[in-house]
Amino acid sequence: xxxxxxxxxxxxxxxxxxxxxxxxxxxxxxxxxxxxxxxxxxxxxxxxxxxxxxxxxxxxxxxxxxxxxxxxxxxxxxxxxxxxxxxxxxxxxxxxxxxxxxxxxxxxxxxxxxxxxxxxxxxxxxxxxxxxxxxxxxxxxxxxxxxxxxxxxxxxxxxxxxxxxxxxxxxxxxxxxxxxxxxxxxxxxxxxxxxxxxxxxxxxxxxxxxxxxxxxxxxxxxxxxxxxxxxxxxxxxxxxxxxxxxxxxxxxxxxxxxxxxxxxxxxxxxxxxxxxxxxxxxxxxxxxxxxxxxxxxxxxxxxxxxxxxxxxxxxxx
Length: 317
Known about the structure:
Layout: H1 3-13, E1 34-37, E2 40-43, H2 65-69, E3 78-85, H3 90-96, H4 100-103, E4 105-111, E5 114-122, E6 128-138, E7 142-148, E8 155-160, E9 165-168, H5 173-188, E10 201-202, H6 228-234, H7 240-244, H8 248-274, H9 281-311
Antiparallel strand pairs: 1-2, 3-4, 4-5, 5-6, 6-10, 7-8, 8-9
């Protein structure tokens, strides 16, 4: 963030720079203005501050430059950056299978005031880019935070003041251990203000204003976002729900599967109506309808996680 933020922290306005919680991103090349978190290129303005008080510099070409340009609205001292999988329903995870890993990937940035969540998507093999999805929760709105599942799959469970719960999964072991050390004292000593909503809120990536649910236009800057009505129209296209939210690789695979389901419906119906032992209309419609039910279930299983992404706001470019 801005240079003054870290100076204020060292002067007593925040956590001292010697705090062991501060993580210095050093995986970039010497002189490079980017570091890497699980192969995600993270512009240096997300470093916030390092152990020596040095500051990164944001370039206009950086994908997160709008956040740096509006850092006065999101002023904080960064403590820790980690990759995790965002919450997803069990049904959606069942149908997505291993593709859920790319569908729910996120970068969490823990600061002295809030927890930020940057939604990312795949760009080629094992590469990730920010897709302009941003959410934030004030530390004062987190009523309970637990890190569990060390031996299998480490998870971060968050309980908010509004009663909602979120589970971030597939944490790295070392990140889980650090969070277990950092979070309890940070939440206990948090002096940040609480929000009226009492939970995780979406932010406009352009102006950082709080976005209202089911209102797909920013009231402050006019940024337009993808909406649920258009998402439902894309259901008419095989794999269209995934294409609409930018998950093109998953859309191609599921589009092929859904096309095969439709062809199976037509094949069953045509075989019963035009075969050597012709059946009446109802006798052909019942088995064809059974195959179509599997197609509809496949569509619904894809619609709900895609609707979740739309409700988390995807800018309409």
